[in-house]
Amino acid sequence: MDRELPVRAAWARAWLTRTYRPLECETLAVCYSVSLVMLFIGIRQLVSMRGARRAIEQDASNRAVIFAASNKRLARATRTQFYITLVYLFHALAIWMVDAAIGIYAIKDDVVANPQSYDLRIWLELAINAVTMVALFSAVFILFPMMQMLGVGYLIAKFHRTNDTDGTLAAYVPAARIVTTQMSHLWMMLGFFVIAWWPVNESSFTRILVLEASLGSAMAWLHASSAFNFRADHLSAVEVQPLLGVKDGVRLYGKQVYALHLGNRGVDVLPQYESTAQGEHTLDEKTALL
Questions:
Q1: Do 16 and 201 touch, CB atoms closer than 8 A?
Q2: What residue intervals traverse the membrane (predicted)?
């Protein structure tokens, strides 16, 4: 079905071509504001880490306590970055909702103006095209971030095999907290740029593919970031070895997607392990980092 759907309102036409002046000002304000806040947080953390380094050089015997205090400050910073990333998400959703509303009203106006053109054949064709496009874009939304997660899992497995580390994620929590938060921010920023500045009718198929890939990746990394930022105490006891295989990685990712979109909040998205009694042990540098 090839029909030019009329968009009567001038502001709506400007919105779809991304030349609507208030939209341009708002998206630029969001971009600059978030960038400045992230720059401030980054500089502040660099200064804090340099201070921790000087403190360790002056008193090496107290390094475990210094590491723990520095890690707490860094954890607060990454949580702040996590919340800032949501600014991009909510603004992207708001822009998308306006796009969808304009499209729905354009179709409604065309149906009212040309009812004879919308027979049963046209509606069936529209339904088939809609289902096909939804299936394709959903596959991109899920498969592209899943490949990233499997790749990261492979790298962790390789590092785990070549280094003398324990069998849990405890050694990776501080670094994973930073990496997942930064990756979610970068992917969400890309998705926001695409939906805010790429005109809707300009290479629309490619635009939607890029948008689905970026937003799907952002949501996957946001999910991982939320786990490492707010459930680090649970993740620290998760064993690395069961996550090394592709089968287990796909199963884990599927459980995460289900819990995020379809399941209830009580679903445990982590692999289940038999609980074992843990004896008391002394505090060392590795546990102090958690």
A1: yes
A2: 27-47, 82-107, 127-157, 169-198
Judged by DSSP in three states, 239 sits in: strand
Residue 40 confidence (pLDDT) above 70: yes
Mean pLDDT of all residues belonging to the chain: 78
Query: Is the pLDDT reported for residue 88 higher than 90?
Result: yes
Residue whose token pair is 């740029």? 193
Per-residue tokens: 242: 């069961």
Structure tokens at 226: 């939320």
Among candidates 137, 273, 156, which has minimal Cα distance to 224? 156
3-state secondary structure of 168: strand
Is the CB of residue 218 less than 8 Å from the CB of residue 184?
yes
pTM of the shown model: 0.75
Q: In terms of C-beta density within 10 A (0-12 exposed, 13-18 middle, 19 or more buried), how is residue 114 classed?
A: exposed
φ and ψ at residue 71, rounded to 5 degrees: -65, -35
Q: Which amino acid is at 290?
A: L
DSSP helix/strand/coil, 96: helix
Contact 174, 70 (CB under 8 A): no
